[in-house]
Amino acid sequence: MILKINLPVGVTMEFSELIKKRFSARSYLPKEVEKEKLDKLLSMIAIAPSAGNLQAYKLSVITEKQKKEELAYACMEQTFIADAPVVLVFLADLRASGKKYGDRGMRLFAIQDATIAATYAQLAATELGLATVWIGTFETQEVMRLSNAGEYEVPVAVIPLGYTTEKPDKKTRKKLEQLVK
C-alpha cells in the first residue's frame, strides 16, 4: 500500500518521498507562517500517537521576537532560531504520564510522547512547504521559563519553523546492516 499525502499545491507525494524531503534548515526568511498553515500543523501534531493515548506533552508556540532571541541564547547561542517566525517548544508532561504509568511513565513515556509529537511537527511542516530543525541542546531551566512550562513539564525539543531558501546537503547515512540486527 502506498500512502499519498496531498500537498498545498495539489501535488501528491508518497510518504517515503516526504521523509526524504525533510531536512534540517538553519536559515529562515523573514516571511510569516500563514495562520492556516500553522493551524493545520498544530492539528496534525495533535493526532500523533502517545502512550495510553494520554498525549503527555505540552506545546509552547513562540512568536514574540524578544522571547525568540532569549530562546536562541538559551539554546547555546544558536542565533538563527530567533530568525524563524515561529518556534515550537515541546515539553514532556511528566505528571500526566506518571499518574497512569508511574516512574516509567515519567522517565520514558512522557519523553516519548513529546518526541513523537515533535517528529510529526517536522513531517507536517515539510508537507506544508515549511522548514524546521530539531534543537536538543539548551539550558533546561531557561527554556522552561521562556515556554511557561509547569512544574512537571520538561523541554524535549525546540523546533524553529518557517520558510527557507536552503537546499538540503547530501548526507551520508549508515548502511542498513549497521543499524538492523
Report on the architecture of this protein:
There is one protein chain. With 181 residues, the chain is an alpha+beta fold. 40% of the residues lie in helices and 18% in strands. It contains 6 helices and 6 strands; from the N terminus they run E-E-H-H-E-H-E-H-E-H-E-H. The chain has helices spanning 15-21, 35-45, 65-74, 94-127, 140-146, 176-179, and strands at residues 4-6, 12-14, 57-62, 86-93, 131-132, 153-162. The strands form 2 sheets. Strands 3-4-6-5 form a 4-stranded antiparallel β-sheet. The protein starts with a strand and ends with a helix. Residues 1-5 and 7-11 have low confidence and may be disordered.
Entry summary:
The protein is α+β, with helices and mostly antiparallel strands. The chain is 40% helix and 18% strand.
Shape: globular
What is the CATH third-level topology name?
NADH Oxidase
Can you tell me the CATH superfamily?
Answer: NADH Oxidase
Report how far apart the termini are. 25 Å
- Regions with little confidence, pLDDT below 50 for 5+ residues: 1-5, 7-11
